[in-house]
Design a protein that fits this description.
The complex is a heterotrimer of chains A (about 290), B (about 375) and C (about 500). Chain A is mainly alpha-helical and about 290 residues long. Chain A has helices spanning about 1-25, 35-55, 55-80, 85-110, 130, 135-155, 155-165, 165-170, 175-205, 215-225, 230-250, 255-270. Classes of the chains: A mainly alpha (about 290), B mainly alpha (about 375), C alpha/beta (about 500). Chains in contact: A-B, A-C, B-C. The interface of A and C includes residues 154, 175 and 282 of A.
Amino acid sequence: MIALLFATLRTATPLLLAGLGGMFSERGGVVNLALEGILLTGAFTAATVSYYTGSATAGVLAAILAGALIAGLHALMSLKFRVDQVVSGVAINMLAMGLTEFLMWIFFDSGSNSPRVDGFSSPEALSGILTEVPILTICALLAVPIAAWVLFRTRFGLRLRSVGEHPEAADSLGIRVHLVQLQGVLLSGVLAGAGGAFLSLNAHYFVKNMSAGRGYIALAALIFGKWHPGGVLAATLLFGFTESLQGHLHISWLPVRFVQMLPYVLTMVALVGVIGRSKGPLALGRLFVKD
Amino acid sequence: MPDPKLKGGLPPIAAWLRRLGLIAVESLWPPLLALALSFAVGSVIVLAIGESPLRVLSLIFLPGLRSVDGFAHVLFSATPLIFTGLSVAYAFRAGLFNIGGEGQLYMGAFLAAVVALSLPEAPRPVAMILGIAAAAAGGAIWGFIPGWLRARFGVHEVINTIMMNFIAVGLTGYCVEYYLQESGMIPHTAVIPEAFQLIPFARGPVGAWLGLNRANPLGFSIILALLAAIAVAFLFKRGVEGYRLRSVGLNPQAARYAGIAVGRVQMRAMAVAGALAGLVGVHEVLLYRHRYLDNFSTGLGFLGIAVALMGKNHPLGIVLAALLFGFLNTGALEIDLFTEVPRELVVVLQAMIILFVVAIGEMATRRRRRRRGRQ
Amino acid sequence: MKIALEHLTRSFPGIRAVDDVSLEFTSGRIHALVGENGAGKTTLMRLIYGMLRPDSGKIIVEDRERSFAGSQEAIACRIGMVHQHFMLVDTLSVAENVVLGAEPIKRGGIDREAAREAVRGDSGRIGLEVDPDALVGDLSVGQAQWVEILKVLYRGADFLIFDEPTGVLSPQEARFLFEILRRLRDEGKTIVLITHKLDEVLALADEVHVMRRGGFVGSIGGREADAPTLARMMVGRDVLFRVERPVETLGAPALEVRNLCLPRRRDQHPLSGISFTIRQGEIFGIAGVEGNGQRELAEVITGLRHHTDGEMLLEGEALPPLHPRRARELGVRHVPADRQRTGLVLQMDLKDNLILGEEDSAAVSRWGLFRPAALTSLANERIRSFDVRVSDLEQAVDELSGGNQQKLILARELAHELKVLVAAHPTRGVDVGAIEFVHRELIALRSRGLAQLLFSSELSELLALSDRIGVLYKGRLVTVLNAGETDEEELGLWITGARGEVESA
């Protein structure tokens, strides 16, 4: 049972980080489908950098940087070039998919996976729980109250929410709408990049197309969690739990495939409003253009 | 009095040519510039690896141009992209964004396989029609649902189509694994009855006449794809439904005021878009593999978005863009074989093409609007 | 705070929205800025608030000339504006909305107690009751208006502009607002109230400034002002429509509306108990200041909105709630108020716009396909009969002049057997020639026995065309007058609520 709990936490970690990241982007009104590509890029960067430096910390930092870069590209496309945010996200995901596989050939001469990387090793004194719960998982859990504080208690959070809800009102009060949105998108890159780092460091490998739709699940968790940090936590734990279930309990009447579909079905149900309507920021996906 | 120019002012051919020229200049340069920029960035990457960009370029394009057989391979690779590109463009005409092509094509292919497997006795002509209809129906159902959710509950179609992609993968995978599986590494169904199988051109007289290699897979699906493109083009230009799609897409408010049932038009648009994506099943199941293979699509639905964007959501443009992507895909094998450059370069190129195409397109419209504003 | 304007001018493509306006807002008083729709009041205030920049002229704040690059700079100069449409974030609390953009900070986060205190302090001082922690989306429209005022006060404004603040308020709320405005004035603040309701002006203003068609007409002291004078100044006499209107005998009732009601919603002005009858061959005009339910009334009759109470009869037969398409088929046609947003698809060409909504009629299509020859001849015929000046049928509609766009819509809507025409502002923003054309057309339809419901903000136009005129004020039909027995002055009193004091809703 404890093993299942730990497995749930581990499975939920990348979803949670990406989901919180997505929250900062979407609360500011920018749809972020690029989460998928950011996770993938983060995973690849973390594996590559920690393989060459031998340091998992360096890997995580590099993944965060790479995540922010990809997010910056998304912000550039959608805020500066006014490209449809969905189109930009889809294209960035393709780019991330191609680029990671391409670079895998260059760095590791393999089309399927990277060599083994060590990941985080826990100090002897703290073995026990820390071997089961990786440090990044703890960071992710800590990120939830911090994200809530930032979103609901700080000047940045207040402005971010106002911009995603009613950019004209924010503008009429002298707030620079696109600047605030850029910050939100970059933050989503940082968090989702770290989530990607967890994927490869926890598995000790980078594998081709490692994110495998987790960015979209994170997006689903964001919607299911009603764009709220606590909701995102609950949703990612639920999705993580169902995914871990298959590895731990062999329930024959519950096919794996159905369990995998659950997040998506639940999200659609939530959107239609059967279980209390999930409504996003009012100006989500609508670019603010000052005339 | 009406303007005298209305009739017989400009000779129709001259007016037509002028407009064609204008369209050509206005709509061709953004995709071409995007293509050039992507290739430029690609060249830098290739140079960094220590290969010659010219050699890579010629490896990508030469095989398709050298022989009829090579070009047939390009056409084969372009076929599913024509379907998914048309699907995106069709929905877009009504102002909807269909990123559910992936799920729709899975459902189309799967339903085609199921219908074929469950009717082993069907006579050939019936089987052909049923197979194609099943592929279209599978996709149509999967497209209709998000369209209905949009019209009925106002839920944006983007999220729902993404979700339904994954649900389609799960659903088809489950059915294949538990009910239809034949032993093998990747789950797949048994071979469909012969009456449902489409035979590649290479095995018939046409193939010999064209000089196709016996193993060349090109077949009826390319004809179906081109027919679909012509039908969509015709519908956009002459069809009442095409007109409704356009008015709903451009100004749903005005369409509603004029009495057009906006929600119904949107639902139909998504269903037809789904059906077009579902026709990939004809290509994949009836022609190519003669069975349903779990998880067969490598992002064909998403590439359809790229193709539609590159082709400016026009059927002719989509066919051309799909051909370009077909060249890239077949060329990928060659650069993998003969150079140090990994074949994934092609995926990177395709992604860059979309980014450049949309950014340049957006800037071009802005510039045009500014110029108009100044006048 | 005193602000003086000198020869202020601002043009938009096609119109001079503000034309050489010089006037002074003296300190510590309530100024009313009145005028009809489109008189340039809001544009003038946006110039002061830094949202727009003047083409020429000076804005002098406390004897210093100022030029604001944006509203932040105006805010910094202690100028505040409450916009006609709420600039509030529904999902934020009252306190959050108030401090947004100028947040008090404590230990890295927002000092929420200070924000609440600011709300309590300001609201207590001027006598408002607002819970600082309530979500703005949960507030009533009136309370939302108080939040807007608190926002301006929090930024320390001494010069407060209110753009049509009572448009969305109930009579009680409006009276309360006036109480607050007086209190603010007594604190020494300068207040500008944009309005066209004369009862408000007379009740409140120390000084009244009148604008008409972008120009400044004159100022008058609040004590000296009376309704007839102001109505005359606002409406002016410079446009006289001369329309030959033959005497017709009216036919049977074509459209009867009985006790029509529509509930209040955020995007919907309520209608209450509207009843009238239009007979064949009659033009029934609706006068009223915009935003008193005109749009809603037009949309209910054409099937775009569904009434909750009351009934409609078309030629004596009760109409169930209709889809717009069905309404059109039954012969109820609509020339919508906003021709660019709801009347036309601007990106489509002329030919396509001429058949919007009838694309599947046998005249232009068969088996789901257009018949290009039939389409062309139909389009040509319509263009000819309505004298639309175009270069070719494939011309983009957004290249046409306003008058030609309007003729295009008329050509489309009138090319059928119809029983009732709902024409909303059919001559708004079109040239003189097109105005004449539209008027002739409407009169010709009247002679053919058509019943018409005509909305217009030009009183002279209503008087020239209508047989009877109903006045819509705050969602009620407050009176119906015979066009021949009334004049602009009387109508001016009715539409501004100066006459027929409405019982509280």
